[in-house]
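Homework help board

Subject: predicted structure for assignment chain

Our instructor gave us this sequence and asked us to write out the predicted structure in token form, then describe one feature. I got the tokens but I'm not sure how to describe them. Can anyone check?
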Amino acid sequence: MMRLNMFKRMLTMLLPVLLVLAMLPVAAFAAEADNKVEVRLKAGSKTVKINGKATTVEAPFVSNGTTMVPLKVITNAFGAGLKLENGNVITLTYNDRKIVLTFGSKTVKVNGAAKAVAVAPVAVKGSTMVPLRVIVEAFGAKITADNATKETIIIGVRAQSSGTGGTSIDSEFGKTKIGDSYHGWSLNYPAGLIQVDQSDNGEFITWADTADDSKVAAQVNVITERVGDDKLSVEEQRELMISYYDQDEITVDKRTITVGGLTFEKVISYAKQTKMNYEYRGIQKGDKYYIVIVGAKGANKSVLNSYDTFLNSFTPSFNTADKSLKDVTKVKDGVITFKDEDYGLTVKLPTDWNKDYESTTPSFQNDKELFFFSLTSLTAGVTMDNWAQKREARIREDFVNSSVRNFVTTPVTLIDGKAVALSYELSLGEDAWFTYNEIALFSGNYRYSLVYMYPTANSAKSKLTYNQVLASVDIDTALIEKNFGNVEESYDLADRSTKTTKRSSTYGYSIELPTYWYGIQKNFNEDDVLYTFSAGSLNIFESDTAAATVVNSLLQYVNSAEGSAQGSTTKQSKTVTINGKTAQHVVIHTSKPQDDIPYTEEFYIFDSAQGNIVFNFNYYDVRATDSNLKIINDAAQSIRFN
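My token output:
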């Protein structure tokens, strides 16, 4: 498995994005009046002539009988459209033809028909090299040879309409080094490898010989860790590098080395399952610790010897004057551009922000602030003019008066149009207030929701960031209209009056639940059911003891040392009747819960043939509004047994 799998903060696969996106147009070649194209090139020569104009590129080469050329030669000469799909799939469009190539794959698709090639697309010194014949013949071009000059000649015509073509030819040519100007490092270009991963802020970057991690035979990683200003000891440095081991990785060598006057810690390891050998080199500069990892498949560590010169080229600095140095930094003007292609969202955030990849909708945060995005279909009766009013009313339904304050509604302008912002402050206790900014953009068939939250005490700094972030938000509303259907309102303004009846044939009961409650464990024939909702949760479970035994256990807990420490008190314990069935109703309040905020639990405990059934409603004090308490009580009063 590739080394990036152990890095918990590793993010989405970019694959050779930099290589392909760099081909997008800056200037197209001037076409002949008749759109005729003549390309002359020669294997091993860095000079390519397009309609007689000579340009310097990465030299074409022949491998397994296949001539490989820079992709930019083809896109620029023929005016072919170009885009990157799924991170590693190159799609060329030329008139009515579509050619699809994939890094690491020897299959090329021409208008859907698969064609085998001897050599897969590969990156060489930053240039994407592709098999020539299969592409230009798909364009209807002819390939001949000039015996006198030993040149290969391609004759064809430019596309009838210009697509997304290439840049001025091969802007990557001459880049023999690679580095990150923000993190401050550089090393020789990892020849023959493609970039397959990079974290949001560039602290982790990976190159490999293939995007398929099950087939990796060679890879390079550069990691930048923030370690503080104190100098790490030798053992601390080695432990930091070893923390990136795979589970089956064993150490075969550890030592201190000096290269070019710089002192590195060096660790060599072997992964038994993948047969990969790894060499780690680490060096500290200021508050940063750099780790360079080279991995190569082989019987023993001798396979790493050929990488010695490459590893020796690493330096914890970036020379902006070095024209041979390609900058792969993701930090531009102090911000990172995050793109979520599924939701068509682009946003620029400061360098200390990260994307939450476990969230189903775009969500980002740093250690103090939070920004997230969602969308819903337009709801009948909700307009741009009344949205803020309805949203404020819903918030007041959900939070007690003492925990929410300072509602303000203001118009805002986004890149995609005029929107409205509802700002307010919310406290969950201990006088810790947070400012929420909810922005609603109505466009087409959808309402787009942006939420930016920060500690109110940090408002001076956070307001500035909030305004900068909001100004950068760009939503591809056309993509949403094309790819999404009906997206029902699930929370913000959901209809809370609708209910659904849930039944358990196993335990012989039914209960009416609001449809906006979310089921985590929702099989009512199991002995454990769990639903969450805006105010708290509902847990239904079964045990083989009598209801009175459960009541005694609850009361004993309240009076125990643990219960007292958390401020637990019994608010009620009595017998009630619900729809003809007797139950024990126990209410316990916890005022000082560890790592939580004050909450109340209501237990309805019914004797059953198997023992007892417990309905446990849990809700937070700040959510104990009349509206929420009525919804909870209505659910409890709907419980019925056969």
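Reply (TA_rk): Your tokens look well-formed. For the description, you could write something like this. The chain has a mean pLDDT of 88. That's the kind of observation they're looking for.
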